[in-house]
Amino acid sequence: MGNYEKEINRRRTFAIISHPDAGKTTLTEKFLLYGGAINLAGSVKGKATARHAVSDWMEIEKERGISVTSSVLQFEYDDFCINILDTPGHQDFSEDTYRTLMAADSAVMVIDASKGVEAQTRKLFKVCVMRKIPIFTFINKMDRDANDTFELLDEIEKELGIATCPVNWPIGSGKNFKGVYDRKGKQVITYSDTQKGTKEGETNVISTLDEDKLVSFIGQENKEILLDEIELLDGASADFDLDKVQKGELTPVFFGSALTNFGVEIFLKHFLEMTTTPLPRKTGEGIIDPVSNDFSAFVFKIQANMNKAHRDRIAFMRICSGKFEAGMEVKHVQGNKVMRLSQPQQIMANDRKIVEEAYGGDIIGVFDPGVFSIGDTICMPNESFAYEGIPTFAPEHFARVRQVDTMKRKQFVKGITQIAQEGAIQIFQEFHTGMEEIIVGVVGVLQFDVLKYRLENEYNVEIKMENLPYEHIRWIENKDVDLDKLVGTSDMKKIKDLKGNPLLLFVNAWSVGMTLDRNEGLVLSEFGRE
Ligand code: G4P
């Protein structure tokens, strides 16, 4: 065991997944308030300035407009060092959102109690399932009229295919929201409106055995419903099993209201206890123990033009083991080069803080002179192993792209290839031709604007884009398939990536199923592997 075991084991690195407007930002803000002192934008700020700092961070996000970023917030709570990875949502949704999940050790899924499971949650959830990381569910907005609790749980189980285990249970919702029942302690924690969390809530903890007191706080009718529901729940729901939680097979479910700051600390405490320390990660040479003394990390995201004045690229790394110290020599495995990481920093929105030291579980950003690619490994100079690559995630929007001025062919190919290398877009070609026709695939439509803007501004190339109707792309897993003999549907299109690997495009999901039916033994995947 290494000397850094204590530091590494107190780290919890997670991402919050949700559909826009479910309350991810509000919940994150409340976490930071509990953290008391937050490490944001380079300085440790007290409770009073925490809110201010967070809103600055969002202001910067807004100002930045088309730039697509995900930031990391680090704070301390109860001796834990917590890293929250922000997964960009709304129209900023892109492959980076997925990649961020590759750097996390667990995920918190926020669901709006009146909406249930929504599209974006479903997509992000698939990545968590693929990685088998623990997933915790926070059902938010209980201060508004909510869907039936059993139905909400049923929906999670059916739509996402994960068993649920409520840790607590809501009593009413909307105007009738009275609090939650804590199943383990067999007690009720009462709700009081905290005026959007600005004042301390007056919470009472009442044993369910103390029926008179319970009735005086939640009313006779709520009490009866609660006791019925508990009985039903105890008979029907999965038993709590930490092992299953850690394998991502069972999600502990909590109820609350981020806006009014109810149920947030209860959630945070349970989450920190149940979730995992930094996970061991696979390499070609076996599994690397996160608490080993030797530093190692992998690049999960590259961001160009973080700062307009400098035109730089930042590579974001997840530290997987050991300790990082500023100025130390490391080996970039894919480049086979020993180097010093230049200006290592913790990136908080647009502000940067030079990092003196960081441990397994932490995220750092380093200046990238154009040597790193997504998925690259950095480790101690005497080591040589590579972490498993980051899969390519299925784009959902496609366009055919051409340069307007044929004389600028060279700049066009150079620009579009570099932007693809950073991982902002994916590029493909027609199956039987070369680079004269480029098909661009993106996860979020905003990336098309980013591409156009960057080609014009950085490479001086004007482009024309023609949207294509495809929404589904599949990688072919079996290497021996003869594409000319493949029986597809009329809307199917064969393309290839830059390495010549064949892929299939479809207009609708039905055609994917049809093609699988028509070609026995064909294996298609939504994730591309290196
Ligand atoms: P997001 O990051 O997941 O997109 O969601 P965000 O936290 O921005 O929340 C979206 C909206 O939902 C916000 O309202 C926020 O105040 C509200 N909200 C979040 N949690 C709760 C909750 O527990 N109960 C209720 N009733 N509302 C909640 P908004 O009107 O869009 O913004 P604002 O004017 O309130 O800032």
Structure report:
The chain is of the alpha+beta class. The longest helix has 18 residues, at 47-64. The strands form eight sheets. A nine-stranded mixed β-sheet has the order 3-2-4-5-1-6-7-13-8, sandwiched between helices. The chain has an eight-stranded antiparallel β-sheet with strand order 30-27-29-28-32-33-31-34. Strands 20-19-25-16-17-24 form a six-stranded antiparallel β-sheet. The model is unreliable at 37-70 (pLDDT under 50). Helix 2 (24-35) runs antiparallel to helix 3 and helix 11 (409-421) crosses helix 12 (446-458). The protein is globular and about 85 Å long. It has three domains: 10-71 and 82-98 and 105-274, Rossmann fold, CATH 3.40.50; 281-379, Translation factors (Elongation Factor Tu (Ef-tu), domain 3); 391-529, Alpha-Beta Plaits. The protein binds guanosine-5',3'-tetraphosphate. Residues 18, 20-26, 89, 140-141, 143-144, 257-259 line the site of guanosine-5',3'-tetraphosphate (G4P).
> Which small-molecule species are bound to the chains here?
guanosine-5',3'-tetraphosphate
Roughly how many Å apart are the termini?
32 Å
Q: What count of structural domains?
A: 3
Mean pLDDT score: 85
Mind telling me the C-alpha Rg? Answer: 25 Å
What is the CATH superfamily label of the largest domain? P-loop containing nucleotide triphosphate hydrolases
The CATH architecture of the largest domain can be named as 3-Layer(aba) Sandwich
What is the helix tally? Answer: 13
CATH class of the largest domain: Alpha Beta
Low-confidence stretches: 37-70
CATH topology of the largest domain: Rossmann fold
